[in-house]
Amino acid sequence: MAWRVAAMLGYLYLDSGATYRALALKALRHGASLNDEVGLETLAKETHIELQPPKPEQEAAGATNGVYLDGTDVTKEIRTPAVAQAASRVATIAGVRRVLVAEQQRAGGGGGIVMEGRDIGTVVFPNAALKIFLDASPEERAERRWKEHQEKGEKMTLAEVFDEVIERDRRDRER
């Protein structure tokens, strides 16, 4: 929904979750331990993540941002279940959050942007002039995510996706 609002207003759109997914993808590719907080913070500092309006082929595949990791398009690669789980773990690390929140603040500091994410209105831009908070039940979010997996040909049961949603919510509450 946020990307549609951005398009209607002619604003840029930024999905903060994509930044955590991109970093998680890099960590997985490098064989980094998702429990190594210092190592992941260092990796975050050494990583360049750029979100751009999607190219037509990215948009046709359902992407709302083109995601570039150290200059390479990883828009599709960050949307796998393994990366989603890793991103949820990476996002709990305070040092990683400091690095990525600073980047999100830099990206949105000039205005003219719609940002989507779990803590945009509370941590990234707590003094934003307009904040809209939307929340869906875990069942609804699991159903939506399960359908996305089905469309991509990924074999996951609704129960597995529901369990992932619950686990992600638990991690978010405890960070």
Summarize the structure.
The chain is mainly alpha-helical and about 180 residues long. The chain has 9 helices and 5 strands; from the N terminus they run αβααβαββααβααα. The radius of gyration is 16 Å and the shape is globular.
Write the layout of secondary structure elements.
Blueprint: H1 2-9, E1 12-15, H2 16-29, H3 37-45, E2 49-52, H4 56-60, E3 66-69, E4 72-73, H5 81-90, H6 94-108, E5 113-116, H7 120-124, H8 138-151, H9 158-174
Parallel strand pairs: 1-5
Antiparallel strand pairs: 2-3, 3-4
Helix pairs in contact: 2-5, 3-6, 8-9
Q: Can you put this structure into words, describing what you see?
A:
This protein is mainly alpha-helical. It is built from 9 helices and 5 strands. Helix 2 crosses helix 5 and helix 3 packs parallel to helix 6. The chain has 2 domains: 133 residues, Rossmann fold; 40 residues. Helix content is 55%, strand content 10%.
Structural descriptors:
mainly alpha; two-stranded parallel sheet; 175 residues; Rossmann fold; 9 helices
SSE topology string: HEHHEHEEHHEHHH
How would you classify the helix and strand content by structural class? mainly alpha
Topology-level CATH name of the largest domain: Rossmann fold
Would you state the CATH class of the largest domain?
Answer: Alpha Beta
The residue ranges in which pLDDT falls below 50 over 5 or more consecutive positions are: none
CATH architectural type of the largest domain: 3-Layer(aba) Sandwich
Spatial strand order of the main sheet: 2-3-4
CA radius of gyration is: 16 Å
Number of strands: 5
Largest sheet: 3 strands, antiparallel
Helical run tally: 9
Average pLDDT value? 88
Helix fraction, binned, reads: 55-70%
**Number of self-contained structural domains:** 2
